[in-house]
From TrEMBL, chain A:
The keyword ATP-binding does not apply. It is found in: Mitochondrion. Residues 49-64 have a biased composition (Low complexity). PANTHER family: MITOCHONDRIAL 28S RIBOSOMAL PROTEIN S29, SMALL RIBOSOMAL SUBUNIT PROTEIN MS29. Keywords: Mitochondrion, Ribonucleoprotein, Ribosomal protein, Transit peptide. The keyword Ribosomal protein applies. Belongs to the mitochondrion-specific ribosomal protein mS29 family. Residues 46-85 are annotated as: Disordered. GO terms for molecular function: structural constituent of ribosome. The lineage of its organism: Eukaryota, Fungi, Dikarya, Ascomycota, Pezizomycotina. InterPro entries: Ribosomal_mS29. It comes from Lojkania enalia. GO terms for cellular component: mitochondrial small ribosomal subunit. It comes from the Eukaryota. This is Small ribosomal subunit protein mS29.
Automatic annotation (TrEMBL), chain B:
SUPFAM superfamilies: Ribosomal protein S5 domain 2-like. One of its GO terms (molecular function) is structural constituent of ribosome. This is Small ribosomal subunit protein uS9m. It holds the Pfam family Ribosomal_S9. InterPro entries: Ribosomal_Su5_D2-typ_SF (IPR020568), Ribosomal_uS9 (IPR000754), Ribosomal_uS9_bac/plastid (IPR023035), Ribosomal_uS9_CS (IPR020574), Ribsml_uS5_D2-typ_fold_subgr (IPR014721). It comes from Lojkania enalia. Belongs to the universal ribosomal protein uS9 family. Coiled coil: none annotated. GO terms for biological process: translation. Residues 1-37, 279-300 are annotated as: Disordered.
Amino acid sequence: MSSSTCLRRFAKSSLERAVQPSIASRSLISPQASCFSTSAPRHALPTLAKASKGPPPKKGSTLILKKKKAPAKAAGRPPAPGDRKAMRKRIVLSNNNALEVAGLQDLKETDALSGISEGQVKGLPEDVVDALRAMEAFKTNQGWKLFRRPATLIRKETTELAGLLKQAEEEKKTVRRVFIGDRMSGKSTLLLQSLSMGFLRNWVVINLPEAYDIVNAHTEYKPLPGSHPTQYTQDVYTANFLSQIVKANKSILENTQITTNPSLPLPLPAKASLKQLAELGIANVETSWPVFVALWKELTQPGLPPVMLALDGLAHAMRNSEYLSAQVKPIHAHDLTIIRHFVDHLSGKATLPNGGAILAATTSSNNPRVPAFEFSMQVAEAKRYHPDNIPQWNPYKNVDQRVIECLKDVEVLKLNGLSKEEARSIMEYYAASGMLRAKVDDKFVTEKWSLAGMGNIGELERAAVRLRI
Amino acid sequence: MRHSRQTSTARSLSTTASRPAEPVGEPQEKFTAAPPINFAKEDAAKAGSGDEKNIDLGKLRVVPASPSYFSSKPTFNDDFVSLSALLRKVSALPTVPNSEAPKVAWKTIDQYRIMTNEPVKTQRYHKMLHILRRLNTIHPSLMPPEVAEAMKRYKKASQPGDVRPNPVFIDEMGRAKGVGRRKKSSAVAWVVEGEGEVLVNGKSLTQFFGRLHDRESAVWALKATQRLDKYNVFALTQGGGVTGQAEAMTLAVAKALLVHEPALKPALRRAGCITRDPRKVERKKAGHVKARKMPTWVKR
């Protein structure tokens, strides 16, 4: 500080010398006395800041006995931009420290939809794991990273759903289900199981991994021309979505040729495969939505395999999105084309001619309050499980009619806790993986089952594997 | 002839050390003194007998009611002597071992001092208690009524076993109810035979208690006795915080479990499910920041 002051002083005095040469000549001898400018003396003796003598502490202020420490600097470099997020979102599907489970069988094409493996833990085949990974069906908070390779428990609800899928496959029906249940009861995992069943049965499997990512205004959007009322497309998201579809269903899309004649803004080679069609949308982001529409039209042509369309975090798709319209009004999620597409199928407005399944899972972790949606779920649950006691909407309260209409006749599949046999089966798997070091007997299973709130599978895993003390 | 004119108020003239006037709570013992001299009657008797001799009141010899009157602790001496005499009288009666004798809460030395208003020494009082305990060991079926009456004077007003808890039972649906408290929370638990299902305020254990520790606390009575797979529990809790509610449930479940299996009491006591934790939030005091924390010291 003082050195810079001195430098400035030198600069200043030299300047003065240039302007007033007569004074400057004398100033060489005694610069302090001869300079008439007041600024030079003011700069001459830079007052040293009195280090210790401040004003006395105000009355009532606390006595600080310790000196303030500088905050500890982190050793090494902070992570590069994006690294933290990548770490957070990383999906780890294997644990080299876990033991290989002897006798763990894979889920097979032949027994995927039959109920014979109920109550058993089944491994997921590698190609299915790749497809599921491409579809972002694995979640970070699921316990895949604890075990050698991905495997799931075929529980009662899975078997029930498998029966429905089998029916859909054989009779070309559309199954529409919403998975509800407590927190950590396995809703997303059931979705994953159904996706893998679809892959095993060579269905066309399309998954919207998280509704929240579609409505939270993190991707660009634009109005869809010619739509009334205005709908909005999300081109970048849709292009990425198309690339996920291509990655996951590569063989089907490669081997199927275009039969309709879609009118697209870009030319397509003659006898193009569906993969080529989708890649057109991936390469040209602005055409991604028309390409998706054309692809969907192709997929619903007769003779093709059934389609499975799945969405996680349904509540987010049933409220206003974070996007704003040109009139600075919030855009309802149903006005976003991707959500609209899903919701039309979920409500039964559009059907799948080749049969298939429209599946959605609710979430309890990132769960927005959507009264109309919650009410619709209560009604659907009551219709299925206790039809004599169906709740009524308070007529003095406003309701989002679009949501009520959409979920009017949708059916739910409620996930309850595991049975004790299922709990025992999964805990034997934990023990065989070396992640649970206890003797798995009836007493132990019942204890964990009770503490996990009557067999809530997530809590069971937490109590048995994660919170080992 | 006794000419004592002592009344209860005149007791302050006694030679013993001065004592507080009227102790509150404990009733003062009735001091029985000689009846007052009825001078009219005396005069009539004198006239009737024809004896002309005048009574010189100044020369009357006053004899106290008790021979211990001139000792420093007259009541205590009387008590001790009478109990000793009683013991001598009944010493031949068969006795039971001390452990089998009825449980009695004797008056403490302080209570006895207040009752008698005398500075009784602790050791002396213990000697008397020794006699009393010996009297208490007389076989209950042969206990003479005079001994029972005499002992009553030295017993506390409330005896162990006086307060009886409401009888516990399993109702017609197989439920046993228990109530537990901790901090500001209270819990009511019903325990039925089952296979380990737990509902708290209509929710599952995981929904109601986020922490695994609290879940374990709530069913600790069952877990510690390895009965978790044999009973179902449904509970209602209210007040306080999450941990308080969980620990109130510990007590409630333990009490309800004891109805089903009373023999588990020692095991449950070892597991810490019987004793109510009496600690509560300490009140804030004036001049303090919290209950005990003082304001920070300031130089000026």
